[in-house]
Every structure is written in structure tokens, then in C-alpha cells.
Design brief:
This protein is an all-beta fold and 127 residues long. It has no helices and eleven strands. The strands form two sheets. Strands 2, 4, 5, 6, 9, 10 and 11 form a seven-stranded mixed beta sheet that branches. Strand 5 and strand 6 form a beta hairpin. It is globular and about 40 Å long.
Length: 127
């Protein structure tokens, strides 16, 4: 049984930092691309970042230069370092495991490209 569990969310002031973590079990973690998605109240879920099996990364334009995705395959863990946080980053953040080893142009679609999802961790940035 595959389990994906996020942690590390919280309340932070504008300009602050948070590091999200995601552990995945029940799958060969190092084989698959992994992604971070977010959903703000009243908005559609959007892809924030994706990392391939080999470590190639892609980002949503609005988080480029502020967020860094990384993975530790030995620990089955995915990270999202978030710096210079803004109120518009407030959202529920979800970790997901893809069916593929790379982040294709379809990765932002989320469902259909990512098979396994966590329950999410809330990030709130106060102004």
C-alpha cells in the first residue's frame, strides 16, 4: 500500500521561510518523478514544482527563484524549501508521486500524471 505524507506547514510572516517534507512508502521512490502542488481557497489546484528521477527540476513561474525542490532517494523523502514567502503562497500544499520518471509538459495537469497523493499540509503567510 502506497502512503504519501506531507509535513512542515505552518504560519509564517511575509518574507519568511518554510521547508516542507514528504515521505513516500510502498513504492520504489527513486524511480518516479515527484511533485508539489498547491490549492488556495476558491482556486484550482496548481503545480508548484516537479523533480525527475535524475534531479531535473521545473517550477511554476511565480515561485521560481524562491522555492527549491529536492529529493533524498535514500530516505524516500521529497522537500520543498520555500523562501521569501508571500501572502499569495497561502494554500494547502500536496505532494504527489508520478507514474513516470520525468516531468513532461503534462506534469502540471496533476491527476492522470501523478498516481499517488498525500493529504496535504497547510501553509499560511500573514501580511
Amino acid at each position: 500500500q502506497v502512503q504519501v505524507v506531507e509535513s512542515g506547514g505552518g504560519l509564517v510572516q511575509t518574507g519568511g521561510s518554510l521547508r516542507l517534507s514528504c515521505t513516500a512508502s510502498g513504492l520504489t521512490f527513486g524511480t518516479y518523478a515527484m511533485g508539489w502542488f498547491r490549492q488556495a481557497p476558491g482556486k484550482e489546484r496548481e503545480g508548484a514544482s516537479c523533480i525527475s528521477r535524475g534531479g531535473t527540476t521545473v517550477y511554476l513561474d511565480s515561485v521560481k527563484g524562491r522555492f527549491t525542490i529536492s529529493r533524498d532517494n535514500a530516505k524516500n523523502t521529497l522537500y520543498l524549501q520555500m523562501n521569501s514567502l508571500k501572502p499569495e503562497d497561502t494554500a494547502m500544499y500536496y505532494c504527489a508521486a508520478a507514474w513516470a520518471s520525468y516531468c513532461s509538459v503534462s506534469w502540471r495537469k496533476g491527476e492522470g500524471y501523478f498516481n499517488y497523493w498525500g493529504q496535504g499540509t497547510q501553509v499560511t503567510v500573514s501580511s
